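We close this part of the discussion by returning to an individual protein. The amino acid sequence and the backbone structure tokens for this protein are reproduced below:
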Amino acid sequence: MEDRILGLHHITAIAGKAKSNVDFYTKVLGLRLLKKTVNFDDPGTYHFYYGDEQGSPGSILTFFPYEGAPKGRAGTGVASHIGYSVPQGSLDFWIKRFEQHKVEFENPREKFGEETLPFRDPDGLQLELVVPRATDSRKPWETAEVKANVATRGFHHVTLTLRSVQPTAAVLTDILGYKLLEQNGNHFRFITDAIEHAAIIDLVEMPEGSRGSGGAGTNHHIAFRVKNEEVLMRYREKVAARGLNITDKIDRNYFYSLYFREPGGVLFEIATDNPGFAIDEPLDKLGSSLLLPPQYEGQRARIESVLPKLS
């Protein structure tokens, strides 16, 4: 079978307070807390994973919450917006819910012919709910307050804001197999036909835009999806052949990864479907306990003592 990038795998962002992050994404947005673990490089910091019931690729949003982290700034060279797919007729529900929970949002607008509701999380991360042209058949995670008829289905798109679109577009088309679907002014929509959902990358060109800076409320990187490690390593060869620096394969416990920075400055990851989130917790218990990488298990008491309390 031909090697393909299967759309988005996950997106990783930076947050401030851990508790407000968990409360917002599980209680307000109604996502499932899939995994509660720590940053591999900084075990005194949580790493949260949110998504659908089983953590399907294309639904996974992850956070490094740094208590007291300064606010970041959206701008060029970053993934600036995350779009979630929601059902037709659900935006009225979300507007009322955002009003109830004092969530910052803007009036619905049309983007590329689709109704879009922009909003921000407690740290200012820019998100959008999108009613896609075609019905999104993915099964959502359902909570007592966010039922299946209005719940998010997973990612619709991610937006990269750039000073120049062309070098990044070349990576998307020549290496990752995307095609330009539509252009609207300085907005360019790219899509892959390898997967039905989480298949869209939007590029916004701002030649005079100020550069974004990392911090709470910004995206750290975006990850593209491949089937397995064999495909992953063939993509490593493709990226390296274009003269881009790319890491060796890294074991992230729930997937295997490669990282490289595309010419516009955004950190890209390629991640595998395997092995998934049920390797260290049963499906019905995902996210219920603190999971530590094996190298940190011997330090559990110390790590638990420094991590912020969530309840």
